[in-house]
């Protein structure tokens, strides 16, 4: 892969997910703001483009190339994967993280008042993500599956549900941005999920779970924003 300052971050990650770890290392958002060029992204974090490009080249030369290429997947398969892998993960981890977070706020909240804000932000995310995923599962994803069926069968497709698939996609992308920003706040409040010196085991476990949750959310949003949504718009046209 030849990298230039005009490459879009999200497209690069869509082509090879190994690049995601490099963008994350330099604090570059590849999921919610993946439509920026390398030059624009580097300007945002005050980084020399050549440094990033060299790091990207080194990373791909030194790492295994056996990663999953989601861009080659049929859209109905990708929708099924996102729903079963990432949506179910979110539902499962919410139930696991919530009692842990409540406990450490109760025990450590006085000494670490930022935990109250973390809890509030996470609870907001729980409500918004739950509603967001249901909209995808009940409206957008079935529509995409029907488009794939129409293409495979050679039949005409009725787009009367909404004028264009771009309408719900724009809504989902806006909601992704909100979640991305919310978890950036959580990461900042927790010093990138670093437990303080007086942290108990539950405190440390909770931060590890929150960090894992955010990392999964990044991949989840990336698969939709940078692969599923553009391909769905192309298929509809």
Average pLDDT, all residues: 91
Q: What is the terminal separation in angstroms? A: 28 Å
Total helices: the number is 8
Secondary structure: number of strands: 0
- State the helicity in percent bands: over 70%
Low-confidence stretches: none
SSE pattern, N- to C-terminal:
HHHHHHHH
Q: What Rg is obtained from the alpha carbons, in whole angstroms? A: 19 Å
Biggest sheet layout: none
Structural class: mainly alpha
The 3D shape can be described as: globular
Strand content: under 5%
Layout of strands and helices, then pairs:
Elements (H helix, E strand, L loop, with lengths): L8 H7 L3 H7 L12 H8 L3 H14 L12 H34 L5 H40 L12 H24 L11 H36 L1
Helix pairs in contact: 1-8, 5-6, 5-8, 6-7, 7-8
Give the structure's gist in a few sentences:
By secondary structure, the protein is mainly α.
Describe this structure in words.
This protein has 237 residues and is mostly helical. The chain has helices at 9-15, 19-25, 38-45, 49-62, 75-108, 114-153, 166-189, 201-236. α5 (75-108) runs antiparallel to α6, α5 (75-108) packs antiparallel against α8 and α6 packs antiparallel against α7 (166-189). The longest helix has 40 residues, at 114-153. The chain is globular. 25% of the residues are buried. The mean pLDDT is 91.
Features:
237 residues, mainly alpha, 72% helix
């Amino acid at each position: 892969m030849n990298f230039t300052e005009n490459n879009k971050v999200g497209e690069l990650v869509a082509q090879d997910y190994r690049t995601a770890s490099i963008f994350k290392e330099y604090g570059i958002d590849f999921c919610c703001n993946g439509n920026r060029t390398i030059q624009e992204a580097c300007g945002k974090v005050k980084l020399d483009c050549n440094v990033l490009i060299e790091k990207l080249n080194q990373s791909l030369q030194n790492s295994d190339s056996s990663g999953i290429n989601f861009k080659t997947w049929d859209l109905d398969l990708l929708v099924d994967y996102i729903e079963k892998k990432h949506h179910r993960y979110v539902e499962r981890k919410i139930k696991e993280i919530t009692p842990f977070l409540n406990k450490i706020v109760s025990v450590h909240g006085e000494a670490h008042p930022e935990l109250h804000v973390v809890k509030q932000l996470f609870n907001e995310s729980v409500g918004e993500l739950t509603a967001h995923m249901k909209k995808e599962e009940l409206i957008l994803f079935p529509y995409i599956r029907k488009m794939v069926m129409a293409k495979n069968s050679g039949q005409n497709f009725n787009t009367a549900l909404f004028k264009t698939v771009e309408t719900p996609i724009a809504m989902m992308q806006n909601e992704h941005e909100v979640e991305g920003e919310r978890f950036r706040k959580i990461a900042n409040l927790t010093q990138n999920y670093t437990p303080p010196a007086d942290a108990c085991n539950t405190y440390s476990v909770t931060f590890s779970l929150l960090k894992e949750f955010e990392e999964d959310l990044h991949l989840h949003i990336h698969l939709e924003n940078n692969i599923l949504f553009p391909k769905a718009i192309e298929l509809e046209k």
